[in-house]
Amino acid sequence: MSGVKKLLTWVFLILVAAIALLAAADNSTPVSLKFLDWETVSLPVAWWMLMAFVVGVTFGTLLNLVSNTRLRMNARRARQVAEGRTRELDQARAEAVQAAE
Predict the structure, then answer these.
(1) Which of 43, 23, 19 lies closest to 32 in space, CA to CA?
(2) What is the pLDDT of residues 23-63, one digit of tens each?
(3) CB proximity list for 25: less than 8 A, separation 6 or greater
(4) CB of 45 within 8 A of CB of 27?
(5) C-beta of residue 47 within 8 angstroms of C-beta of residue 73
(6) DSSP per residue over 8-73, as a string?
(7) pLDDT digits (tens, 9 = 90+) for 60-85
(8) Domain containing 58: what range?
């Protein structure tokens, strides 16, 4: 099963690379982006698409990192509270057993 998963992953990656190459070849017309009075240098559309993808992945990763860090800290606090209450419960049970004897 692991071999099939690995094979499917490689096939998917090769397919994505082929699509990216086709998109880059098809979008080779140089364009410049203009915002108000500011204009960028002329680059092929494929480069602008690639830069937008990289910026999106970077921001998505940073936002995910912040979100995951917050969730892990909350989970750690909850685990500490649960462990403390478990210790208290064990102590109460031990005292109840001693009192019953």
Answers:
(1) 43
(2) 777 777 888 889 888 998 998 888 888 889 899 999 999 99
(3) 46
(4) yes
(5) no
(6) HHHHHHHHHHHHHHHHHHH---EE--EETTEEPPPEEHHHHHHHHHHHHHHHHHHHHHHHHHHHHH
(7) 999 999 999 999 999 999 999 999 99
(8) 2-100
Number of compact structural domains in the chain: 1
In angstroms, rounded to a whole number, what is the distance separating the alpha carbons of residues 19 and 10?
A: 14
pLDDT of residue 13: 87
The pTM score is: 0.57
Could you tell me the two tokens for 64?
Answer: 């995910």
Q: Which residue has the tokens 């940073």?
A: 62
HSE-CB of 60 using CA atoms within 13 angstroms? 6
Name the one residue in this structure whose structure tokens are 């108000």. 36
3-state secondary structure of 78: helix
